[in-house]
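User: Sequence in, structure out. Go.
Assistant: Echoing your sequence, followed by the C-alpha coordinates.
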Amino acid sequence: MRPSRSPICNLRAVFSMNVTTQITIQYSRAKLGEMEECARRAKPYESCALLFGTKFPAPNPSKTSTQVVYSVERVDCIPSSRPSEVSFVIEDYETFLERWKAADALGLKLVGVYHSHPAPAAPSGTDKQNMLWMDESNFKFAVWVIQSMLKHHATNAFIYTQNQFFKVPIQIIE
Protein backbone atom coordinates (compact mmCIF):
# COMPACT_ATOMS: atom_id res chain seq x y z
CA MET A 1 0.00 0.00 0.00
CA ARG A 2 1.25 3.47 -0.84
CA PRO A 3 0.61 6.45 1.41
CA SER A 4 -2.22 8.67 0.23
CA ARG A 5 -1.16 12.06 -1.01
CA SER A 6 -4.13 13.62 0.75
CA PRO A 7 -3.50 15.18 4.17
CA ILE A 8 -7.12 14.52 5.10
CA CYS A 9 -7.40 11.55 7.43
CA ASN A 10 -10.89 10.20 6.94
CA LEU A 11 -11.88 8.96 10.38
CA ARG A 12 -15.64 8.78 9.88
CA ALA A 13 -15.90 5.62 11.99
CA VAL A 14 -14.48 7.54 14.95
CA PHE A 15 -16.43 10.74 14.52
CA SER A 16 -19.78 11.33 12.82
CA MET A 17 -20.77 9.97 9.43
CA ASN A 18 -20.42 13.31 7.62
CA VAL A 19 -17.28 14.65 9.24
CA THR A 20 -13.66 14.05 8.29
CA THR A 21 -10.72 14.80 10.52
CA GLN A 22 -7.53 16.48 9.45
CA ILE A 23 -4.60 15.71 11.72
CA THR A 24 -1.52 17.91 11.93
CA ILE A 25 1.54 17.12 14.02
CA GLN A 26 3.44 20.07 15.45
CA TYR A 27 6.70 20.43 17.30
CA SER A 28 9.25 23.11 18.07
CA ARG A 29 12.64 23.47 16.42
CA ALA A 30 14.12 22.36 19.76
CA LYS A 31 12.10 19.10 19.65
CA LEU A 32 13.18 18.58 16.04
CA GLY A 33 16.76 19.03 17.25
CA GLU A 34 16.18 16.34 19.90
CA MET A 35 14.88 13.96 17.23
CA GLU A 36 17.89 14.69 15.03
CA GLU A 37 20.19 14.07 18.01
CA CYS A 38 18.62 10.60 18.37
CA ALA A 39 19.53 9.97 14.73
CA ARG A 40 23.10 11.25 15.17
CA ARG A 41 23.68 9.01 18.21
CA ALA A 42 22.33 5.92 16.42
CA LYS A 43 24.24 6.47 13.18
CA PRO A 44 24.83 4.44 11.01
CA TYR A 45 21.74 2.61 12.26
CA GLU A 46 18.11 3.65 12.28
CA SER A 47 17.09 5.61 15.34
CA CYS A 48 13.79 5.66 17.18
CA ALA A 49 12.07 7.99 19.63
CA LEU A 50 8.70 7.99 21.30
CA LEU A 51 6.88 11.29 20.88
CA PHE A 52 4.69 12.25 23.82
CA GLY A 53 2.39 15.23 23.97
CA THR A 54 -1.20 16.32 23.75
CA LYS A 55 -3.97 16.25 21.17
CA PHE A 56 -6.33 19.19 20.87
CA PRO A 57 -8.93 20.48 18.43
CA ALA A 58 -7.90 23.37 16.22
CA PRO A 59 -10.29 26.12 15.17
CA ASN A 60 -11.93 25.29 11.88
CA PRO A 61 -14.84 27.21 10.33
CA SER A 62 -15.73 24.21 8.15
CA LYS A 63 -18.63 22.13 9.38
CA THR A 64 -17.59 19.16 7.24
CA SER A 65 -14.21 18.60 8.83
CA THR A 66 -12.57 18.59 12.23
CA GLN A 67 -8.95 19.57 12.78
CA VAL A 68 -6.88 17.90 15.48
CA VAL A 69 -3.34 18.98 16.37
CA TYR A 70 -0.89 16.49 17.85
CA SER A 71 1.58 18.62 19.82
CA VAL A 72 4.92 16.98 20.65
CA GLU A 73 6.13 18.04 24.08
CA ARG A 74 8.57 15.25 24.93
CA VAL A 75 11.02 13.26 22.78
CA ASP A 76 12.31 10.02 24.31
CA CYS A 77 15.04 8.30 22.29
CA ILE A 78 14.94 4.52 22.57
CA PRO A 79 17.86 2.44 21.30
CA SER A 80 16.96 -0.35 18.93
CA SER A 81 17.14 -3.80 20.48
CA ARG A 82 18.68 -5.04 17.23
CA PRO A 83 20.63 -2.18 15.63
CA SER A 84 20.22 -2.20 11.87
CA GLU A 85 20.68 0.18 8.98
CA VAL A 86 17.23 -0.68 7.63
CA SER A 87 14.92 -1.12 10.65
CA PHE A 88 14.54 -0.61 14.37
CA VAL A 89 13.09 -2.97 16.98
CA ILE A 90 11.98 -2.12 20.50
CA GLU A 91 12.07 -5.26 22.62
CA ASP A 92 13.06 -3.58 25.88
CA TYR A 93 9.50 -3.37 27.16
CA GLU A 94 10.64 -2.39 30.66
CA THR A 95 12.27 0.81 29.38
CA PHE A 96 9.30 1.42 27.08
CA LEU A 97 6.87 1.17 30.02
CA GLU A 98 9.07 3.36 32.25
CA ARG A 99 9.04 6.10 29.61
CA TRP A 100 5.31 5.65 29.04
CA LYS A 101 4.56 5.97 32.78
CA ALA A 102 6.84 9.00 33.15
CA ALA A 103 5.03 10.77 30.31
CA ASP A 104 1.63 9.72 31.65
CA ALA A 105 2.53 11.18 35.07
CA LEU A 106 3.01 14.52 33.28
CA GLY A 107 -0.36 14.19 31.55
CA LEU A 108 1.21 13.38 28.18
CA LYS A 109 0.07 10.70 25.75
CA LEU A 110 1.87 8.89 22.95
CA VAL A 111 1.22 11.04 19.88
CA GLY A 112 3.83 9.57 17.59
CA VAL A 113 6.91 7.55 16.82
CA TYR A 114 9.98 9.14 15.23
CA HIS A 115 12.65 7.26 13.37
CA SER A 116 15.38 7.90 10.87
CA HIS A 117 15.66 6.21 7.48
CA PRO A 118 18.67 5.54 5.29
CA ALA A 119 16.29 6.10 2.36
CA PRO A 120 13.57 8.66 1.50
CA ALA A 121 11.20 9.74 4.29
CA ALA A 122 8.39 7.30 3.52
CA PRO A 123 7.15 4.17 5.32
CA SER A 124 9.09 1.00 4.53
CA GLY A 125 7.44 -2.41 4.40
CA THR A 126 8.45 -2.98 8.04
CA ASP A 127 7.05 0.42 9.03
CA LYS A 128 3.76 -0.45 7.37
CA GLN A 129 3.55 -3.74 9.31
CA ASN A 130 4.27 -1.89 12.56
CA MET A 131 1.71 0.79 11.74
CA LEU A 132 -0.87 -1.94 11.12
CA TRP A 133 -0.05 -3.50 14.48
CA MET A 134 -0.31 -0.13 16.23
CA ASP A 135 -3.68 0.52 14.59
CA GLU A 136 -4.98 -2.66 16.23
CA SER A 137 -3.49 -1.87 19.65
CA ASN A 138 -3.63 0.81 22.32
CA PHE A 139 -1.47 3.03 20.11
CA LYS A 140 -4.20 3.71 17.56
CA PHE A 141 -3.83 7.02 15.75
CA ALA A 142 -0.11 7.47 16.53
CA VAL A 143 1.65 9.50 13.84
CA TRP A 144 4.91 8.17 12.40
CA VAL A 145 7.49 10.89 11.79
CA ILE A 146 10.16 9.62 9.40
CA GLN A 147 13.34 11.55 8.68
CA SER A 148 15.54 10.64 5.74
CA MET A 149 19.27 10.55 6.43
CA LEU A 150 19.96 11.29 2.78
CA LYS A 151 21.51 14.61 1.80
CA HIS A 152 18.67 17.01 2.70
CA HIS A 153 17.19 15.20 5.73
CA ALA A 154 13.60 15.50 4.49
CA THR A 155 10.99 14.69 7.13
CA ASN A 156 7.46 13.41 6.55
CA ALA A 157 4.69 12.14 8.81
CA PHE A 158 2.13 9.39 8.24
CA ILE A 159 -0.77 7.71 9.97
CA TYR A 160 -2.49 4.43 9.25
CA THR A 161 -6.22 4.17 9.78
CA GLN A 162 -9.17 2.47 8.10
CA ASN A 163 -6.83 0.29 6.03
CA GLN A 164 -5.10 3.28 4.45
CA PHE A 165 -1.89 5.26 4.90
CA PHE A 166 -2.24 9.03 5.00
CA LYS A 167 0.40 11.73 4.89
CA VAL A 168 0.07 14.09 7.86
CA PRO A 169 1.14 17.75 7.66
CA ILE A 170 4.02 18.78 9.95
CA GLN A 171 4.01 22.21 11.53
CA ILE A 172 7.24 23.55 13.05
CA ILE A 173 6.54 26.11 15.77
CA GLU A 174 8.99 28.51 17.40
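User: And one key feature?
Assistant: Residues 13 and 162 are 8 Å apart (CA to CA).
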